[in-house]
């Protein structure tokens, strides 16, 4: 069997806890499936937190200050709003303020659908991009996860890792798709990478050719060759994200891309409304259909301008 | 009552904190009424369980079964209060007289549900009984309940939560504010010894009623015998704020339709037994039958409505 994202996280964690004197803090770790099998059962250094959603991150930060590189797991991203203060007000500022970073690795798990509704249908990585001193990423493949972990070990700043349940059982790597004569360039983040792949297939049948550039790092977001070249050629783009669109990662990246390339780039994320429990009230990652619709419109506008 | 009489060898036992002759000296009407409310909640949850098992109900459900004696007792003392619950709110909703059809519709995700299908089981509300909905973040409703008690001194507030919720940082702040301002609020901890599946012993060493007492709030730690809960709630309601820690057992899974194993005790069965011993067996059986038929018929009707859509 091929190694899944969940396997990768578990192995990285095991190594960190057993060989690196690491810590992993979280709620309900042991009793309920070891966080979707991402935590090695009974490894040393596991800290079963009480339900202290505000002070829990403080414990992790304290441990980091005295030399650990703790992993903090949040089983749902809605809890980030409770955890956020010590992370952004202390950990993220520490390097600028005191010249010494606080290396905490925050695993925040996004989920959606299946009746998770307003409580647990959430993806909030965008709020951390706002804060200087934070690193923010959303790995969706085993190799990417390994890479962001290596990056974490190399530098002492806090890192928000926006995971998505949808990726856990996946073992596939996701290479960019780039054509010389593409009509549009899609940039996809988090679980939107899976729906974007489907959208590309859907649009191919309509003779709309899409580039697809996968985005792992939201902050820093690098406007390098890999990212810019396809957009310069296709002359329009869409950034698609699992989080909210307004003031979110999709709008932020779209702005950077648009400004750098001088071509229209749209942002597409969750609708500006609370997600409901009933299937018809859900609000999650843009579906392939929704992505396709936006792409069609962009391509139409582009041709009408010429 | 002295503190010493409250300490039994194990706090987690069905007769923890028991007082002699409490049920026997209670009026028959009162005993039957509490049992009726327990039936309402238990049979409702059984229907929800069934519908979920059969795939007719697709949203996530947090069942109260096993713990319903607490709300059944509290609702006889605190009716008319603002009611705040957390995700496990079925029993308070039903025992305080929440609308049955709107509840079922909510679980079925229908626009006629008590939250129009937005929230489902953890978010239920009913303005008619002044029950305020929960947003799913554990314990966050406790400061909110305290705020309501602060702003409306003409009303009382009852706030239900679990043994996990009391570990939240903001829980302590809420207790402190209620104590400082002597707010008319009754805190009720439904202590099932579990946070999802993590037992209390893996999470902490301290007891929440000790913390409440340290704030100067009168607090008591008892098992979920409805007569006992009612007795203490009545005493406390005379001088709020008050804190009840009630040891109880969740009958089903944390979420969804399934069972982790047999509960340590099933209060529902113990109350049935007690009523029989008190010579109320026939009346209890009649109430049980009547309530069960009522709940089942409403469920059946709503499920038919749904499948007609
Ligand atoms: C702020 C917050 N942290 C964590 C969770 C995840 N969670 C949902 S229910 C639960 C356990 C709650 O335990 P308790 O308060 O004892 O209530 P019970 O389920 O036992 O009735 C947890 C940890 C949550 N919903 N909100
Ligand atoms: Mg509990």
Give an overview of the whole structure:
The complex is a heterodimer of chains A (306) and B (309). Chain A is of the alpha/beta class and 306 residues long. Chain A contains twelve helices and eleven strands. Chain A has two domains: 5-167, Thiamin diphosphate (ThDP)-binding fold, Pyr/PP domains (Rossmann fold), CATH 3.40.50.970; 184-304, Rossmann fold (3-Layer(aba) Sandwich). A seven-stranded mixed β-sheet of chain A has the order 2-1-3-4-6-5-9. A four-stranded parallel β-sheet of chain A has the order 8-7-10-11, sandwiched between helices. In chain A, α9 (192-204) links the parallel β7 (184-189) and β8. The model of chain A has no long low-confidence stretch (mean pLDDT 96). Chain B is α/β, with parallel strands linked by helices. Chain B has helices at 3-6, 22-25, 28-53, 68-78, 90-95, 100-107, 141-151, 169-180, 208-214, 226-237, 267-277, 281-308; strands at 82-84, 131-132, 157-162, 185-191, 194-195, 198-199, 218-223, 242-247. Bound molecules: thiamine diphosphate and magnesium ion. The site of magnesium ion has 6 residues of chain B, from β5.
Shape of chain A: globular
Which regions of chain A are unreliable across 5 or more consecutive residues at pLDDT < 50? none
What is the terminal-to-terminal distance of chain A? Answer: 51 Å
User: What is the H/E order of chain A?
Assistant: HEHEHEHHEHHEHEEHEEHEHEH
The largest beta-sheet of chain B arranges its strands as 2-1-3-4-8-7
The total beta strand count of chain B reads 8
Pattern of helices and strands of chain B: HHHHEHHEHEHEEEHEHEHH
Work out the oligomeric state of the chains in this entry.
heterodimer
Number of domains of chain A: 2
Beta-strand residue percentage of chain A: 15-25%
Fill in the keyword field for this structure.
heterodimer, A: 306 residues, alpha/beta, Rossmann fold, seven-stranded mixed β-sheet, four-stranded parallel β-sheet, 12 helices, 40% helix, globular, B: 309 residues, six-stranded parallel β-sheet, two-stranded antiparallel sheet, disordered N terminus, binds thiamine diphosphate, binds magnesium ion
């Amino acid at each position: 069997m091929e190694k899944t994202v969940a396997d990768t996280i578990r192995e990285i964690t095991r190594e960190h806890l057993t060989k690196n004197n690491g810590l992993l803090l979280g709620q309900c770790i042991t009793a309920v499936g070891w966080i979707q099998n991402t935590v090695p059962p009974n490894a040393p250094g596991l800290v079963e937190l009480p339900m202290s959603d505000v002070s829990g991150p403080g414990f992790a930060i304290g441990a980091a200050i005295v030399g650990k590189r703790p992993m903090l797991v949040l089983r749902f991203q809605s809890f980030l709003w409770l955890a956020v203060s010590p992370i952004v007000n202390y950990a993220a500022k520490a390097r600028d303020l005191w010249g010494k970073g606080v290396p905490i690795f925050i695993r925040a798990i996004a989920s959606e659908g299946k009746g998770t509704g307003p409580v647990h249908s959430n993806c909030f990585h965008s709020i951390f991009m706002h804060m200087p001193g934070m690193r923010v990423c959303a790995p969706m493949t085993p190799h990417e996860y390994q890479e962001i972990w290596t990056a974490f070990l190399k530098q002492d700043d806090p890192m928000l890792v926006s995971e998505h349940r949808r990726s856990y059982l996946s073992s596939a790597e996701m290479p960019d798709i780039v054509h010389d004569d593409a009509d549009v360039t899609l940039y996809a983040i988090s679980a939107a990478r899976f729906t974007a792949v489907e959208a590309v297939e859907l649009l191919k049948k309509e003779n709309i050719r899409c580039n697809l550039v996968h985005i792992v790092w939201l902050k820093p977001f690098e406007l390098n060759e890999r990212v810019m070249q396809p957009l310069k050629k296709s002359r329009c783009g869409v950034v698609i994200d699992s989080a909210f669109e307004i003031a979110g990662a999709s709008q932020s990246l779209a702005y950077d891309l648009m400004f750098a390339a001088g071509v229209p780039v749209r942002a597409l994320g969750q609708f500006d409304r609370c997600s409901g429990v009933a299937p018809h009230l859900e609000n999650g990652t843009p579906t392939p259909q929704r992505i396709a619709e936006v792409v069609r419109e962009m391509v139409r506008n582009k041709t009408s301008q010429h | 009552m002295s503190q010493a009489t409250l300490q039994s060898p194990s706090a987690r036992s069905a007769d923890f904190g028991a007082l002699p002759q409490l049920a026997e000296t209670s009026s028959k009407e009162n005993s039957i009424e509490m049992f009726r409310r327990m039936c309402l909640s238990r049979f409702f949850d059984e229907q929800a369980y069934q519908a979920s098992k059969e795939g007719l109900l697709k949203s996530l459900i947090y069942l109260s079964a096993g713990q319903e004696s607490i709300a059944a007792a509290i609702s006889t003392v605190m009716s008319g209060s603002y009611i705040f619950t957390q995700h496990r709110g079925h029993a308070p909703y039903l025992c305080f007289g929440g609308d049955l059809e709107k509840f079922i519709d909510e679980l079925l995700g229908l626009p006629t549900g008590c939250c129009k299908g937005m929230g489902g089981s953890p978010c239920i509300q009913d303005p008619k009984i002044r029950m305020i909905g929960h947003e799913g973040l554990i314990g966050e409703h406790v400061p909110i309940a305290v705020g309501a008690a602060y702003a409306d001194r003409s009303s009382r507030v009852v706030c239900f939560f679990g043994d996990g919720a009391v570990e939240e940082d903001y829980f302590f702040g809420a207790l402190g504010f209620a104590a400082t301002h002597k707010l008319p609020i009754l805190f009720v901890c439904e202590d099932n010894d579990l946070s999802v599946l993590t037992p209390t012993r893996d999470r902490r060493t301290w007891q929440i009623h000790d913390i409440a007492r340290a704030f100067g709030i009168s607090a008591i730690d008892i098992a979920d015998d409805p007569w006992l809960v009612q007795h203490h709630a009545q005493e406390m309601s005379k001088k709020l704020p008050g804190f009840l820690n009630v040891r109880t057992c969740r009958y089903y899974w944390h979420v969804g339709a399934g069972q982790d194993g047999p509960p340590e005790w099933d209060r529902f069965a113990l109350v049935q037994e007690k009523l029989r011993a008190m010579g109320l067996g026939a009346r209890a059986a009649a109430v049980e039958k009547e309530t069960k038929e009522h709940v089942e018929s409403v469920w059946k009707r709503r499920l038919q409505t749904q499948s007609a859509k």
